[in-house]
Amino acid sequence: MSEDKPNSTHFGYKTVDTDKKAELVASVFHSVAAKYDIMNDVMSFGVHRLWKRFTIQTAGARPGMKVLDLAGGTGDLTAKFSKLVGDKGQVVLADINDSMLKVGRSKLRDRGIIGNVNYVQANAEALPFPDNHFDIITIAFGLRNVTDKDAALRSMQRVLKPGGKLLVLEFSTPQHEIMRKVYDVYSFKVIPKMGDFITKDAGSYEYLAESIRMHPDQETLKHMMQDAGFEQVEYTNMTDGVVALHKGYKF
User: Fold this and answer.
1) What residues contact 71, with CB distance under 8 A and at least 6 apart?
2) Are 119 and 105 in contact (CB under 8 A)?
3) Which of 131, 70, 140, 125 has its CA nearest to residue 101?
4) What's the CA gap between 40 and 205, in Å, rounded?
5) Tens digit of each residue's pLDDT (9 = 90 or more) over 194-243
6) d(CA 84, CA 88)
């Protein structure tokens, strides 16, 4: 039996009504959608491309597979998966934010990626797909923005085929004290200034830094995935745990 949702949750370091968080997160991504890719490159010094490349390699997508790129934003993973699954496969780029979906659709179509990609505006907590539908699900830098992460993980488990794989790429907890200190200074002092300069929106990037700190650490997320029904759950730390890739299977 599921428990009632709490009346409040966190939005960064703020406490907000549970039913307001999705709207607040949406406002962040509406604001930054047009410059999202540029900020990713600047903030990570391009390293986000290596994190995503490792995720693609770990996914093991093959021709004919069905892949859900959840919270797929501007479509970096979708573009790679589209080539890997081929004409007989299918990739669904899903995001709760219509501004991000529009940017992603425009970007991929400009690159000639059309035939095997569909675009769906969807809430991760209640995915509008049939049971046992996808071979692979990825969610890259999106889970921390979900209000009810446990519900989202259960929803992903439901739409994944038996034998299918979930990959969660997300900011996490650095493993060494020196890295944690450097990362804190960079996150709270430098990134908001970058956001202000590039997107004219320092506040959204202050939220980014806070949302990362409020996200479950590696072991906690591993247990959450296990509680949602995933098996053989493991994770790989990258950049000393600044980012972690969690992997789990549905059997």
Assistant:
1) 94, 95, 96, 124, 139, 140, 141, 142, 143, 145, 146
2) yes
3) 70
4) 11
5) 878 777 777 777 888 888 888 999 999 999 999 999 999 999 999 999 99
6) 10
